[in-house]
Amino acid sequence: MEKRFVVEQPEVLKVLKLAQDSNKVGFDIECEGLENTARISGFSLYIPEHDLGVYIPLVCEHPEYAFERSKEDTLQIMQGLSKIKAVTYNGSFDVSLIEFQYGIRVPLAGDGNLISKMFQLHKFGLKDPLALELGIINEPIKLYHVLGEGNYNFVKAPLNQLTLDYTVQDAYCAYKVEEALVRDNWKPEKYPSFNQVYNLELQVLPVLGLAERQGMLLDVEKFSETARQMAMEADDLHQEICNELNRDPLSFNIGSSQRLSCALFNKTDRVPEPLPPKKPRARKEPEQDDRDLPGLGLEPGSPPSKTGKFEQYSVANIELERISSQHPVIGKIMKWKSLNSVLTKDVPHVHEWAPNGRIYPQFEQLGEDGTSRIYTGKPNVISMSYAVRDAMPPAQNKVYVHVDYQAAEWRLAGLLSGETRILEELDSGRDPHKATFAFMSSVDPDKVTKEQRATGKVLNYAALFGSTGYSLARSLKCSEAEARDLSNKFWAAYPYLSTWRQKRHDYAMKHARTHTVIGRVRRLPGIFSKQQSLVKEELRRSVNTATQGSCGDVLKIALINFDKMVHGDSILAKYKARFVCPAFDAALIEMDATALNDKDNVEQGLRDAFEVELDCEGRKTRMKIDIAGWSTDSWKAAMGK
Question: 28: helix, coil or strand?
Fold first, then answer.
């Protein structure tokens, strides 16, 4: 395919004439936002008769490529677009944007059913996986490749080759995917793994849509009072911490990693450098840099990094936990950091989140990283602190029930690897982390201590998330040699899990992809990189996606089951149960408070809905749940916190 930018107006009109003469063309718009008033930065066309992909910019604010087309020329282009037949993924948005701003409608090719299917591919994040499965593209180019992480304003994009490849990709893929759908009449047997995922996403869409529209309550007054008390507690802690660190409370910033590191780890006998002499016109005396002052002289838990003349040690919570026994101020610092996080991240946005006392989160069915877990944004209720959740009550005469899967990733690891001992431990109700340490150390599970259980937990999750070397030693609070010895004992205790992990790595190295338990594909393009750190990250994802990614699929299957029961003749329908919000491997459910008088039957109904049965190569398991709690007070209380 030939690709090119078309900037000059006469050339643009020639390309539009080619598009108008075509039976149908691939089409896509780039803009600075998702509102009807968002500026259109440009659009791309794929003209199949000439195998030509073009991007026609309307405005560009990148410093090196600054460009803006005149209103007259832009209107002439829009009038030309009204005479093409466009194939696009997000047809309703693209058409409405142009119509709202210019009063011109771009006709869409195909019937309503086909246009709807194309939009669903866009909504579910499945357009790239299908294009990959059909062999239309080898590797998708993502928006963050062009603009960088966290930037979505395409007006700022440079007019370079990467931008051209990205813009033309969607127009080209839209045309080719629609062509395949028409040719194959959307036959499931043509691409079975994709269709299984597609149908799953299609069925869970109305469940999430209803939860978005109904939202959830936020008691702004209660949270404001909680925030006021937290602010007072944080101020008191700040004063105490500064006193114990021998720092000036008016100038010392606990949130500064470097200053906190110096206060904790500088030697007690450190001699500060002399202050520079006062300049003749200086308005005040030069101040002593508190990084140069003596500290508590604590032993750090990890090697330092050099920043200027000061050695800086990590003061992340995981490092502070390792040295918490050295001085009582460490516990106070961790408490202050927790309070400060809520006060800076949550408190300023409460009125923005819930202007009328109700939050309406937006659910993303697939993460940007290709996982199947449901994420929330604007606001991100999944990551909200317990202080916020404590101010989120159910509706009047309603009760919250928090449903959480038991050791979901660990159970899936046992199912996929054939390590039946893991499934037997979980089915018998034994604590999986105690069982791991007991088995690898040949001790009685009932005699496993709290510290030993913590070791078992770290090793279990290290197996799933790929933690090794220094990071594993840091989590285990031991030397790398000791961590390596414990890791070897772990893999010796679970040989089938070890073999399965190696097979996952080998498959990823050969095919540059992995998949979940239902066949959802995740591409791993970095597996062929020359950067070993990127290769290791992709190998970690090859295992993590199979377990954690599968958890997302399990929750979606459960929500579909739940929705069928709610709209059928079931105990959940009787008490008007509704899905409120996901929380990774958990779900918040709201129902009539009268269900409290029938808890046993309701909990069995929830188990029928959420305990999905999975089958992998003849091995079966049931994804068991815990009912964390019931509460008429708040989400936090329902979680049992």
Answer: strand
CB burial class (10 A; 0-12, 13-18, 19+) of residue 472?
A: buried
Instruction: Say how far apart CA 434 and CA 452 lie, in whole Å.
Output: 7
Rounded Cα–Cα distance for residues 624 and 428 (Å): 12
Residues contacting residue 363 through CB under 8 Å, at least 6 positions apart:
208, 211, 212, 374, 375, 376, 582
**Each residue's pLDDT tens digit, 153-197:** 788 888 889 889 988 998 998 898 888 877 776 665 566 666 777
Cα distances (Å, whole numbers) of residue 95 to 32, 47, 79, 103, 104: 16, 19, 13, 10, 9
User: 219: alpha, beta or left, given left = phi > 0 and alpha = psi -120 to 50?
Assistant: beta
- Please list the residues that pair with 298 across neighbouring strands: none
CA 607 from chain center: how many Å? Answer: 27
403-460 pLDDT per residue, tens: 999 889 999 999 999 998 898 888 888 888 999 988 888 888 888 888 888 888 888 8
DSSP 431-496: -HHHHHHHHHHT--GGG--HHHHHHHHHHHHHHHHT--HHHHHHHHTS-HHHHHHHHHHHHHH-HH
398 in Cβ contact with 593 (< 8 Å) = yes
> Residue 492's CB: how many other CB atoms inside 10 A?
10
Question: How far is Cα 403 from Cα 375, in angstroms, rounded to an integer?
Answer: 17
